[in-house]
């Protein structure tokens, strides 16, 4: 599981898809899927979501922000 997850409050607006610097949010199904092997836990998606649909899971990121791609 990634450091963040999308809940059913998601309206599908797409803001997190455009904002995520790691392209960790995938538009597959609803709720959207956050890829654990990409998400660094930067929380930019939490900030940008107008529906407060992105929540922290408490899981640590598998790789740090700014790390090797
Ligand atoms: S926490 Fe950061 S890296 Fe993870 S899905 Fe959100 S915007 Fe992307
Ligand atoms: S920003 Fe929020 S409401 Fe919009 S697609 Fe992402 S999780 Fe869903």
From TrEMBL:
InterPro entries: 4Fe4S_Fe-S-bd, 4Fe4S_Fe_S_CS, Fe-S_Ferredoxin. Keywords: 4Fe-4S, Iron, Iron-sulfur, Metal-binding. The keyword Iron applies. The keyword Metal-binding applies. Residues 1-27, 29-59 form the 4Fe-4S ferredoxin-type domain. Signal peptide: none annotated. It holds the Pfam family Fer4_10. One of its GO terms (molecular function) is 4 iron, 4 sulfur cluster binding. This is 4Fe-4S ferredoxin-type domain-containing protein.
């Amino acid at each position: 599981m990634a450091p963040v997850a999308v809940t059913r409050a998601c309206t599908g607006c797409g803001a997190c898809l455009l904002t995520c610097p790691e392209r960790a949010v995938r538009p597959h199904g609803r709720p959207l899927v956050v890829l654990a092997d990409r998400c660094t836990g930067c929380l930019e998606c939490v900030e940008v979501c107008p529906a407060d649909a992105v929540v922290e899971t408490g899981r640590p990121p598998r790789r740090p922000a700014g790390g090797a791609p």
